[in-house]
Amino acid sequence: MARRSVRIAFTFMTGASALAMAAAPQAAMAQDAMTAASDAEEDNVIIVTGIRASLQAAADIKRDAQGVVDAISAEDIGKFPDTNLAESLQRITGVSIDRNSGEGSTVTVRGFGPDFNLVLLNGRQMPASGLGGCCEAPASRSFDFANLASEGVAAVEVYKSGRASLPTGGIGSVINIRTPRPLDRPGLQGSVAAKAVKDHTFDGTKITPELSGIVSSTFADDTIGVLLSGSYQRRKASLAQFNAGWREGYLGDENNWGSLGYGPNVENRPDATDTYQIPQNAGYDFTDIDRERFNGQAVLQVAPSDQINATIDYTFSQNTIDARTNSIGVWFNHGDTQSSWTDGPSAGPNFYAEAFGPGKDLAITGAVAANRSINHSLGGNIEWEHPSGMRWELDAHHSTAESKPTSPYGSNIAVGSAIFGVESQAIDFTSDMPVISANMYPGSEIDASNIRPAGNAFRNAYMRNRINEISLKGGYDFDAGFIESLDFGVTYTENKVRSAYGFIQNDTWGGTLTADETPDDLFTINNLPEDLSGMNGANDPSIIPSYFQVDTAGLINLLDSQIGICAGTGAGPGTCLADYTIDRTVNEKTLAPFIQSTHAFDLLAGEAHLRLGMRYEETTINSRAQVPVPTSTAWVGANEIAINYSDNGDFTRLKGSYDNWLPAIDFDMTPIDNVKLRAAYSHTITRPRYDLLQGGLTLAAPIRPDGGTTASAGNPGLLPYKSKNIDASAEWYYDTASYVSVGYFRKKVSNFPVTGVTEGPLYGLTNPAQGRGGELIAEAAAALPAGSNFDEQLAYVAANYPSVIDPVTGGILGQSGDPLVNFRLSQPFNGDRTATLDGWEFAIQHNFWDTGFGAILNYTIVNSDTFYDNTLRYTETQFAITGVSDSANAVLFYDKGPLQARIAYNWRDGFLSGYDTDPYYIESYGQFDASASYEFIPGLTGFVEGINITNADRKGHRRNDQSVFFAAPGYARYAAGVRLNF
Predict the structure, then answer these.
(1) H-helix or E-strand containing 563?
(2) N or C: less crowded end of the chain, CB within 10 Å?
(3) Which residues does UniProt assign to the signal peptide (predicted)?
């Protein structure tokens, strides 16, 4: 039996596997909120109401802005176009999104993914936290927009070109979330809204509530203002998905375990130089999601005179997700197989099948990811503007982001069970939804009475990010002359990040309790084709007919009481929270002064502007890490060797530093009326992921019996990515709220981390499969009846040679005379790799006279000089930029009188989403959204929304289109509600 990896799929938590759900569209509205010179423009952002008024303001500010700036604005107080900020941003030219559990989560701008885009709140750098994948310490810098509801947001601005006054960190863009201010709209006003949401669920229709409110008032002749806002959202939804794990990309002339043999059972075998991948495992996942989100904000403003404005604001968000997954699937041993393949040079399987003797498992898994992310931000700002033209601004904030589990078992757990009776299994990859079939031996039918508990894993992750920041900015506005204004300032930022991880794993994949000792009521049988419906292949008559809803908590309690599966934790009874074996801290301190001048002059028939800026940044990094110390190895499964660790970890402390000069130049001119030409040049940086900076040596487990494994260590001396950017655009504003624009961008990026690899032994760890353990397993195979599996052979060794058995894992311990494990130790350093991305952005916004109808169309082309070559063997080192793809949006709207309506189509072309030894591709995807509202009486509006109304599906593959690693049917989501404005 092939022992399954501890990475039991939680891919529903990634953008690749989640359903695409986007809300109603809204046009981009640019706003230069980063300098005091634009304060007058900022006062007008939230005042626009309705689609047409918002588009008019968008066109005006797009024309008047310096540099390339786009945004989404609120149509009215408390009324943002979408309930999710990321889903709103995808309407902007050049912006694409990734989804997590069916909601917009992170953004890609001009081909650069989430880690390359910096998020600000009211101009302040925001911390970010998240627990990432299932099986490692979290390390991403990317901001999760799903944590924030949109009702308390005035605008989201996307700065695509560099600027000296902007904080650094976003090669793709700097995204500024602006919240409303009471003194921007004097008087008493507010909004209250209630919405009912209908989402797809396996157990019938679920209606969940969304409530929001915002109230703003000013006093003392509008010199004091108070604003309070809050929202509550509950969402229950279900996701179904096919998932598959794949072996490495072999060449057709290879013949080893895990590759294709040369027998007659291979149809259209890949040629000697073709690459191909064989499925290692596959299954169907059925996930129920319960998400609860709270957002709140309080703002106090005081303006004792026309020259002084002071603000104190506090923002809170809490996003709790409980995702429970039930899976059924198969694992391959690559023995008695049959298969059929497509043509090369990168071949994919039409089908892959394997037959077994008695004892092969049909895997059944209950998994839970229950986590909470909490964000706090407390800030203060004081502005002083003298009539002479002198300006000063002091701003400071303390902000934190924290993510941790809410389950007593950890952040991500998987409890395995199995029916040990598969006679043969196969996967047909020729349909949209790959079809898994399994034939069972008599007496081993797919029924709860035949299920036995097997292995399990309890992962416990934690991340906290704290930012303390203070900035002092000044400026002077000149009355006349070539220099229009001069701005300068300095910012000090301390960014401290802690990420921790630990796990308990019980490698009892051959089964623990018997089926008779396991209550049947822990497993509720469900109809698999019915819950998987929506894609071609789901109703194939050969598909596995059923899956089980696992009472995960009940099964854990049973196993803990019988065999002590949670004994490896020091957290006390009733919990399986693993102790942290990896605990890392990175502390970044940055000092950044800047100076920027703005010039206005006449050129040809119109006015021109030139902005010259320089920013200097000096950063120091201190990295502290606790990592586990390996003590021994144990051969626990046919294909896996576990690593044992001591109870105490090892602490390391490392330091690094760097500095950068970052110039920025913006130029625009109006050669003829209503036509604007722009050009910009800038340098920008993005800092590496935290795991690349964190010290400490980490070993990858499990080790394969036929080879070694990998190890990794961070490097706090890494320099940031650096990009040299060119932007140019031409815009024609041919009518009120109507324009056409075309833009070109080019980014040449350097300082990409290169992984240096050294090979050799570490910590004296040995490979029992290649030494004494291999001899004992061979003896067991000879002594037992033909066809015995590894677990039976291991039981023979334990009975006859108990001294070689590890009392913790039950595996065969590595001996001092066994061959040493070969580790491939990788550590990042800055190499000479560079990458160039360039592209074009096309947009048109048109209103059809006074009919109320209008349209928005945009298309983005992104090209890269890097690509992944699918025809190279997996051992070849490759380099490619991920996330690069074209995208498009089309919106048709109506806004006249009390009625507003929109229908929108959003499309993203296929792209390389990532790679390890082999690539991952997300296939092209498009979806339709629609919304409508009607104002019954002034201030009272009813509205309806439809998200993904055509049930668009998502899919991803590896080297070949038929090497599918996920496929997910899409489901529509509908909502209806009322909004009262006053």
Answers:
(1) helix 552-563
(2) C
(3) 1-22
